[in-house]
Amino acid sequence: MRIIDLSSPVDSEYYEPDPVEHTVLTPAEGARHMSEEMAEHFGLDFEVDDLPDGEFLSLDRLSLTTHTGTHVDAPSHYGARAAYRDGGPRHIDEMPLDWFHRPGLVLDLADAPTGAVGRETLEREFARIGREPEPMDIVLLHTGAQRHEGTPKYFTDFAGLDGAATNYLLDLGVKVIGTDAFSLDAPFTDIIARYRQTRDRSVLWPAHFAGRDREYCQLERLANLESLPSHGFTVICFPVKVARAGAGWARAVALVEES
Predict the structure, then answer these.
(1) Fewer Cβ atoms within 10 Å of its own Cβ: the N or the C terminal residue of the chain?
(2) pLDDT tens track for 2-21
(3) Is the pTM of this model over 0.85?
(4) How many separate domains does the chain show?
């Protein structure tokens, strides 16, 4: 069994509209921090000089959104209402884990222009690979957006899905749709330009807003999808259990059987 890493990093050196802040306490700084915290919270005095080399443990602090790096969007990310259930949409910590350990398929959209692709594009891809997804399979979209990772173009140059394409996958029983792009929808710049031209509200983030009427999750900002066969592998993408959150980071991988 070969393990392929499908995750993009959380990197404070990458360009992000919401920048990542990453500070590090060195082991020496961590020793002083530990000594101060023990005194303040537990009334314990501890001399840093008693530690080997005067060091304890390093400590990383990060400030970032749950949509940085590879992550899973929960139904609560799409809005406050859920037409499909009482009590509102579920948060990421409430989602069933079996959604995130499933057979996968990859569709090649790398030649698609920036914007939103439709159902017919997905149908052609399923015909090309000779297989449609079974219910609960995870469908991954290889848009080629990873080539712009860490730059402003990562947020403006990629293909997403329109409403018909999204609902087509949900009609097939798919619960998790993944992409190597920043969003399952087209870029903000493309969406706003089309809306200003047409005043058609259906072009406004249709993939995300579909989640108000049908429960599903998006798996965004994947990597290395070009390394996968079109099908015959397993995706594992368990989201971090962030209480009451609309998304959770994931270390997504694929398990590919060696022949």
Answers:
(1) C
(2) 999 999 999 999 999 999 99
(3) yes
(4) 2
